[in-house]
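Page 37, top half.
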Amino acid sequence: MFPGPVDPARALAPLRRGPGDPCLQVIDGAFWRTSLMVSGPVTARISRAAPDAVDCQAWGPGAEEFLDAAPGLLGAHDTATDFVPTDPTVVAAHRRVPHLRLGRTGQVLEALVPAVLEQRVPGIDAFRAWRLLVTEFGSPAPGPAPERMRVPPSAQTWQAIPSWKFHLANVDGGRARTIVGCARRASALERLTARPPAEARAALMSLPGVGEWTAAETAQRAFGDADALSVGDYHLAPMIGRTLLGLPFEEPFTDAAMVELMEPMRPHRHRVVRLLIESGLAVSKRRGARLPVQRISAL
């Protein structure tokens, strides 16, 4: 039971890396998730049982550990008692989605690797790379998992993936080296869950190849960091400018301007972004031609 309404769909949505994600699938309204816990691999099935309750079943050596962490995954520990929005649009968004909960996985490397894959490339390309690498190098999902689901690779496995396999997944050498370097520091990375979120984000940015955007995307998912603003995102600053200031589509709005505008919203800047999106009030860019996937050069 949760202290108020809970919505697994909204809590788990940021964890899904495209419709073909081998680690998170939605089937008949139920969410199937795989993870590699300290105690071993796990497959879990999560569904809403009541407005304030969920049903969670888990299989595999990591099942008990996963179930212990499930409330945090679904946002039970997300406290926003100090969140008092004043911007009219944010107030309206909060009114539409008053019970939005930010979940935390507690799994740093599992959040960091796909964030690195998403650096500077179209989402569809990053999702494909994640699907190909996890499908080939992940392990079988325990229990009655849906077809094609896999458990994410271990840190040791990420380190051992040959450069040409990253290449075949259209992952350039820079991102591949960042993933391997982060995997080598996996033990230290997982200990970041015990630090305050802002301090943990700073520690992530000390890693080669991990900048502010990647650290924020990781912190949002692994730590449930309500203030992790994805500075450097191609779409975010223009969306904020159009939504909160009513700027026309053709008028640019920079990251620096976004950071200044959202400064009074600390420590809930990421929460504000999620509220705008989940409420339907975010003014997205007009649909245009999809960017072509950039193929990396031959080795």
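Page 37, bottom half:
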Amino acid sequence: MYLKNPPRIKVLEALGAIADNRVKIINENECEVVSSEGDRVYKVIIKENLVNSTDNGTMYRNYIGYPIIACLMLMKKLPFNEKIARALKGIPWRRLNEEYKNYSKVEEIVFSIAKERDINKEELENFIKVILNELGRLHLRKIK
């Protein structure tokens, strides 16, 4: 089964996870990603274009979850932007997602935080577009 592209916000959430040092490469095929609240550890497996992760988006909604995106960035299989990542450090992703229950609203808040940290919306939009295009080209399939 091919995984769908994620909601746009997941690209930014992946950068935030990296900036917060919550992504650990175990070996060439495995990573662990700690959730933004520190209460969960997602196991990620990446073997060529076969992937899986224990996050809800990947497991239940069949889209490429942010832990997979973060691992692909650290493994240099997707572009990474240090400047944007630094601007997304310390954002309480889960709290925002649960409070607003609307990715567009959370995205607006994240854009606002990034702007205060000298990253404009256009830079974020361009980076999101690049990552979503790359994910589309990778044709990632879920490991059963």
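Margin note: The CA atoms of residues 71 and 77 lie 9 Å apart.
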